[in-house]
Amino acid sequence: MNLVTVVLLSFVIVAGVTVLASMALLKLWPVVQRGRLATSAGGSGGAESILRWSEQPAPGWQRTVERIGRAVGGSEQTVPSKYRQRLIWAGLYEPRAAVLFIGAKVTLGALLGSAYFLYSSFVLLRVVPFSQLFSNRIKARQRDIVHALPDVLDLLMVCVEAGMGFDAAVARVAEQPETRHRPLYAELMRMHLEVRAGRPRPEALRALGGRTGVEEVKSMVGAFIQTEKLGTPLGKTLRVHADSARVQRRHRAEELAHLAPLKMLFPTVFFLMPAFFLVTLAPSVLGLLKLFKAIGTH
Question: CB under 8 Å to 249, separation ≥6 — which residues?
């Protein structure tokens, strides 16, 4: 092999290993890093309030990353709002989370600058952009919220029609042990605790819609606020929105079912059709080869 072939082969091998490592890192990142920026609400200490942040000293690496983030992005109040909003949508409410996120981006960019300079145009920028590190978690969380919305509305409707007030119904639905750690139920409990702490209910409801980033939740929140202003029965509003959310969930399932054959088309063409042609045409091809060989020998 000449020098050019060796260089090209080495580049292909290194690029392939980098692609595989990047895909594995991006797939495992939300699982490995789930608790790195999370507040004490996600821990096992059920006695702590989700409205308070942990006062325990942070590890050394976290303090270093936080200092870098403050030097680049400023304090918690001056960090760009887009980072704070996306972190809130991902379930990370602690004010230091945005500073840590910016510091982590700068630190990783400095440590892996040479590799990023060589392969970013091929791996990161064209295959999986760096901004999608949190997108997978945001999409998964919002999908869980949308799927759980009809069940939550049904439970709230049953509680309200049974004679419970809105705050009591929210507390009863959100405090179920089997669903306490799901995003929508945790957001309802947070809203309930904020109201108990003295925050006006309309403001707490609007904050609930803003933290989720889901249009269905924002529509539900707007209906609740309008119902409270007009004095209309809350049970009817809950019933209407529960029926609408259930219909929308069924339409999403039907849409995915209709897309399934289209998604199966490409694997069928690229994997099954070659094998099918090989099985059906191989005997004929072998017979022709034997015939041509016999003709050639004579």
Answer: 146, 147, 149, 150
> Structure pTM?
0.57
pLDDT in tens, 230-250: 888 888 889 888 888 889 889
pLDDT classification of 103: cutoffs 50, 70, 90: confident
Separation CA 112–CA 253 (nearest Å): 42
Query: How far is the C-alpha of 188 from the C-alpha of 170, rounded, in Å?
Result: 7
Q: Tokens 């209906």 map to which residue?
A: 223
The single-letter DSSP state of residue 182 is S
Q: Residue 278 falls within a domain, yes or no? A: no
Residue 136 has a CB neighbour count (10 Å cut-off) of: 15
Using one digit for the tens of pLDDT, what is the confidence trace for 31-83? 444 444 444 444 444 445 555 555 555 666 777 777 787 777 666 666 667 77
Q: Read out DSSP for 5-31? A: HHHHHHHHHHHHHHHHHHHHHHHHHHH
Computed on alpha carbons and rounded to an integer, the radius of gyration of the chain in Å comes to 28
Residue 159 lies in a domain: yes
Count of structural domains within the chain: 2
Q: 146 and 197 share a domain?
A: yes
